[in-house]
Each structure stands twice: as C-alpha cells, then as structure tokens.
Amino acid sequence: MGKRVALVLAGCGVFDGSEIHEASAALVHLSRGGAEVKIFAPNIEQRDVVNHLKGSPTEEKRNVLVESARLARGNIQDLAELKASEFDAVIFPGGFGVAKNLCSWAVDGKNCTVNEHVNSTLQAFHSAKKPIGLCCISPVLAAKVFPGCEVTVGQDKDIDGRFPDAETASAIVELGCKHICKNVNESHVDKANKIVTTCAFMCKAPLHEIFDGIGTMVQEVLKLA
C-alpha cells in the first residue's frame, strides 16, 4: 500500500499563490512513488492578487482555497479538515503564496506570523514524528515553527547570480536554525526532525533541474514515512 501524503497549497500562481511547476513536480514524483495524495489549502482570502502578465498587483480579491482548487483539479479540502493521523507525511510546495498567505514572511521576514492551520498542521506531523517536505521558500515555515531545525533554501551567497534570494539563509540562521547549502538538484534531510527541504526556484536553474531536486525531496519524504 502506498504512503498517504497531504499536499498543502497556497493559491495558484508564483507571485501570489503556489508555484505551479513545483506543485506539479511534487504530484508527479508522488504519483511515481505510489503515494496516495490528498490536497488541502486554507480557506482564507489571499494577501494580494498579482497580474502575472504585468507582474503588478490588482484590486481583485481571491480565496486561497478556491484558487488552489485550480491546481487540484477541484479535488481539494479546507486545511482546517486535515488530520495528521490519517496521513504518513505532508508536503508544502513553494511560491510567494507561502510567504504571503501561509505566513507573513513576504512582509515581516523572520518576524512573520504563521497561519493558525498551517502552524497546527506542522506541529501535528512533527509531534507524530511524521516527515514534512518543503521546497523553495516553504522551508521558512519550518524555521519559524521549529527553532533549531536544519533546512536549505539553496546557497547562502548569490553564486553567479543563481541565488538572488540568498539572504533568506541568513534570516533562517537568525531564527536559531541551521542552514545547509545545497545545489538545486539536491535536498537536505534533517533526520532528528524528519524535515526534508530543497531550494527549487530559489535557484535560477533549468526547469528539469528543479524538477529533479523536488524529486529527491519527495523520495526522501517517502523513505521516512
């Protein structure tokens, strides 16, 4: 029987929701790994709505659960209904929606607050010693909720212009966590906390390398589950 994995989304679209390629990559690798997946998102209003063609905010109002349903092909549940006891692992794809909707990192950085249902979900899986997978900016959720944990968002220096958000690593360290430098096609496993992270689009890399990195994260999560 395949592992039961919850996937938590933050909307639909890199600038105000979940990064679509990351969510899709996670789902493909989970499918290949024989996992049984259910998708969740918080039933809240998005912090903002961005015109992805122009890259600028609009006056629209959108709901995170409703927008996430686009990625889930309509098969999605309110995050408030997620019970860690019914799953073997949880995975959070990245995208600005994580830093805007699942927490306030986009505005407050290391002083951010985490959505109550996101926090309780992370705490429930951690307390049950079940693995948590995070990619791109999502590792900041673990850094905020679990001081002392180990995560990666890629590199802590902007090497050859490939890691423009390298300062995120410093903020993670300031939260009392350990940042582990990894390449885009790698992931890091914090064995003590069962937290698996990979940088994904925190690195400017070809899509297939990001896809492969997410694959290593999913494989490690399934091994731990």
TrEMBL record:
Domain of life of the organism encoding this protein: Eukaryota
InterPro entries in the record: Class_I_gatase-like
Signal peptide: none
Protein name: GAL3A protein
Organism the protein comes from: Probosciger aterrimus (Palm cockatoo)
Lineage start: Eukaryota, Metazoa, Chordata, Craniata, Vertebrata
